């Protein structure tokens, strides 16, 4: 997922996406622990996607606080 795509989403959609990715990461870690995970790069990609979502959310919060103050 690209940050450009994330910036088009609303804050609530971003929070929903973050929850969805966190659940996916949990499932990937569970698969890794049980030996069912074939590609370990999917964990890395999911972590980076979560970081991108959190970054965009934080940017929006800072933007709102600056315009509100």
Structural features, described:
- The structure is a single chain.
- This protein has 69 residues and is mainly α.
- The chain has a single domain, classed as Helix Hairpins (Orthogonal Bundle).
- It is built from three helices and no strands.
- Helix 2 runs antiparallel to helix 3.
- The protein is elongated, with a radius of gyration of 15 Å.
Per CATH, what is the topology? Helix Hairpins
The DSSP helix count reads 3
The helix/strand series, from N terminus to C terminus, equals HHH
Describe the largest sheet. Answer: none
**Total beta-strand segments:** 0
Helix content: over 70%
List the uncertain runs: none
Give the count of structural domains. 1
**End-to-end Cα distance:** 32 Å
* Quaternary class: single chain
- SSE-based structural type: mainly alpha
Residue fraction in strands: under 5%
CATH architecture annotation: Orthogonal Bundle
Any idea what the radius of gyration is?
Answer: 15 Å
Please tell me what the overall shape is: elongated
CATH class: Mainly Alpha
Mean pLDDT: 93
In short:
With 69 residues, the chain is mostly helical. Helices cover 83% and strands 0% of the residues.
């Amino acid at each position: 997922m690209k940050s450009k795509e994330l910036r088009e989403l609303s804050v609530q959609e971003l929070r929903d996406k973050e929850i969805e990715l966190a659940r996916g990461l949990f499932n990937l870690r569970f698969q890794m622990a049980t030996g069912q995970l074939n590609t370990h790069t999917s964990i890395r990609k999911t972590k980076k996607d979560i970081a991108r979502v959190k970054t965009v959310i934080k940017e929006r919060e800072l933007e709102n606080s600056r315009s509100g103050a």
